[in-house]
Design a protein that fits this description.
This protein folds into two domains: 105 residues, Immunoglobulin-like (Sandwich), CATH 2.60.40; 186 residues, no CATH class. 4% of the residues lie in helices and 45% in strands. It contains two helices and 24 strands. The strands form five sheets. It has a seven-stranded antiparallel β-sheet with strand order 19-18-22-23-24-21-20, with helices on one face.
Length: 369
């Protein structure tokens, strides 16, 4: 007798925001119910069999709650090394299933690996554990645009503790020194910190073209990153730099044009009675404006190619969008939480498409009575 899992979670590491159903049967005769126990909860989850004595359970809400504990803001944005292990994007979920009859029970234990991401209908999960947490058609080849002089990172899904990561620029045949994972977790490549980057520190110089980067883990090839570098001073003299949590479980970046429109929208908040107790002829307005709430909005635009479309497509549905406080490259700054409105469209017949967005800044602090 044994518990048999007839439907498991496919893919080596599964996206946590998708349904994650398992089906299982018990080797016991006429099982009454089963309990699924996980370490994070004191009480087990109880499920009952269908007419075929098969059980169904969804891990989605359990693992989603674990990932959502820290929200979607980047908790690792302050790293200063060229690359290191980070937390928050990868988790292992242990579980125990116990099936019961009136007189006996049987037990099976296991675990599944999850990452903080979602897949759309028709998208596949990839078995490459060193895949980049960005859009890809095959989990090996990636096309990403990088704006020099602004903060920029790339995250790998999972690298085992003590494994080494090295990056070779095939354009120059230069390889950066090994980066070592300190834990089994996602791994961040910290390419640009705004004030310095891989090129300026000579860790791994990136040419002002499409850089063909090859990622190896423990000297085994894993991933190709085709990194389009937009030069910070010459080609992107400044603009509105945006960062958002993407569907793949990491963060994407984009520099909107340096020319943008600013709007300030006030709204009356309340009125105050101001009675001066005067008669007709001397009466003035007895109501005083108590103050306004106001918001500032930026109307921004940019152009993108077909590869960049895959990066921008989830900007407007992201739960966390931030802008960099500086408009010019090569300056220290900070990330500011904002709201973004707009829609995304891309015409495959065009080489370049236009995008426009409205960025709502934090509410203005205004004088009030």
């Amino acid at each position: 007798m044994a518990i048999t899992i007839t439907q498991s979670i496919s893919g080596s590491i599964y996206p946590c925001y998708n349904d994650s159903y398992i089906k299982f049967t018990s080797g016991l005769t006429n099982p009454i119910y089963s309990e699924i126990s996980v370490p994070e909860y004191t009480n087990p989850f109880k499920v009952y069999p269908d007419l075929n004595n098969e059980f169904l359970f969804n891990f989605k809400d359990i693992i989603k709650a674990k990932f959502n504990a820290n929200g979607f803001t980047d908790a690792n944005s302050n790293i200063t090394t060229n690359g290191q292990s980070i937390t928050g994007s990868y988790n292992t979920q242990d579980f125990t299933i116990t099936s019961y009859t009136t007189s006996s029970n049987e037990v099976i234990s296991g675990s599944y690996e999850f990452f903080k991401a979602v897949k759309q209908v028709g998208e596949s999960t990839f078995n490459n554990e060193a895949q980049v947490l960005a859009y890809s058609e095959n989990g090996v080849d990636y096309y990403i645009t990088y704006f020099e002089g602004f903060p920029f990172t790339i995250d790998l899904q999972r690298i085992n503790s003590a494994s080494t990561v090295n990056i070779t620029n095939l354009n120059t045949n230069v390889t950066g020194s090994n980066l070592t994972a300190s834990s089994t977790n996602s791994f961040r490549l910290n390419i640009d910190e705004a004030t310095e980057n891989w090129t300026s520190t000579d860790y791994l110089p990136l040419l002002d073209i499409l850089n063909r980067l090859e990622v190896r883990v423990d000297d085994v090839f894993k991933t190709n990153i085709n990194l389009k570098k937009v030069v910070g001073i010459q080609d992107c003299g400044g603009g509105i730099y945006v960062k958002w949590f993407n569907n793949q479980g990491s963060y994407s970046y984009w520099l909107f044009d340096e020319y943008y429109k600013t709007e300030i929208r006030p709204s009356k908040t309340y009125e105050v009675t101001n009675n001066s107790f005067t008669n007709v002829g001397s009466l003035v307005n007895p109501i005083t404006n108590g103050g306004y709430d106001a918001e500032e909005r930026l109307v921004v635009k940019s152009r993108f190619d077909s590869n960049e479309a895959n990066t921008l497509r989830d900007l407007f549905s992201s739960p966390s969008v931030q802008i960099w406080s500086k408009r010019q490259p090569w300056q220290s700054g900070e990330w500011i939480d904002v709201m973004i409105n707009g829609s995304f469209s891309s015409n495959t017949k065009k080489k370049l498409n236009d995008i426009q967005a409205i960025i709502k800044l934090p509410q203005l602090i205004t004088p009030k009575l």
